[in-house]
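Practice problem 4.
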């Protein structure tokens, strides 16, 4: 068995999250019992489906409500909502380290990196780890680790068409986005638009950010865009990487 490679790195997120939880304790925050969720285990067949979707089309959208459980999805949403009420969510940029640019004409979401330290995050990381191993076994991608952040788009926020990774850099290889919003209607905007990998002008899929829906795609190949949201949109993005750089905290 491969050892998980989510390295516990120094964790500023942990502190804001706990103090944020304390700050709102006694208001409307109810602990969510993850123990009562029934989860369908990540099966070999299901991993086969993900791998063949990625290798044939380069992208897919899949319902993971039964794999993760509704309580876990609700608990993750509760975490991002708490973070969103504090200053823990930071304006997202493009690039990394010294190359980081915050260009509000390209992207307007706010993000907070996850460390896998809370119970819901630990359960989620276990799920991502089985996807990492499953994809490696089937597609030989050499995915070494993953990095994950929450994202909030408030009304009017968007992320213009982009790729998640530049060709040949072998950094982010597979992108995953998990949505956390109940009752999302087309009129709420905020859809993920996926474009043809050979023609960035041709839309080949639209994914509404409904709770439990997950989009998976090849980071270097698939142009995509988040259309302006008309109401607050919560999600979680995860990238499986071939290198081992630390989180950009
Ligand atoms: C991203 C991204 C898509 C989405 O964060 O890079 O493209 O649907 N997100 O949130
Ligand atoms: Mn993206």
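Answer key:
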């Amino acid at each position: 068995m491969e050892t998980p490679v989510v390295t516990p790195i120094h964790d500023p997120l942990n502190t804001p999250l706990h103090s944020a939880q304390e700050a709102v304790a006694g208001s409307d925050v109810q602990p969510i019992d993850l123990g009562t969720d029934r989860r369908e285990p990540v099966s070999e067949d299901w991993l086969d489906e993900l791998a063949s979707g990625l290798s044939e089309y380069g992208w897919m959208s899949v319902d993971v409500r039964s794999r993760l459980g509704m309580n876990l999805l609700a608990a993750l949403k509760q975490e991002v909502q708490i973070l969103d009420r504090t200053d823990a969510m930071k304006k997202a940029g493009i690039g990394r380290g010294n190359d980081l640019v915050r260009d509000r004409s390209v992207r307007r979401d706010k993000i907070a990196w996850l460390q896998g330290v809370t119970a819901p995050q630990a359960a989620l990381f276990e799920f991502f780890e089985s996807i990492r191993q499953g994809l490696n076994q089937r597609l030989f991608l050499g995915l070494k680790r993953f990095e994950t952040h929450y994202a909030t788009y408030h009304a009017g926020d968007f992320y213009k068409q982009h790729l998640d990774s530049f060709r040949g850099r072998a950094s982010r290889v597979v992108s995953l986005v998990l949505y956390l919003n109940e009752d999302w209607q087309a009129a709420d905007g905020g859809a993920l638009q996926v474009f043809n990998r050979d023609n960035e002008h041709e839309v080949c899929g639209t994914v509404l950010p409904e709770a439990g829906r997950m989009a998976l795609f090849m980071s270097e190949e698939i142009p995509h865009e988040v259309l302006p949201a008309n109401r607050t949109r919560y999600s979680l993005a995860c990238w499986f990487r071939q290198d081992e750089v630390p989180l950009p905290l």
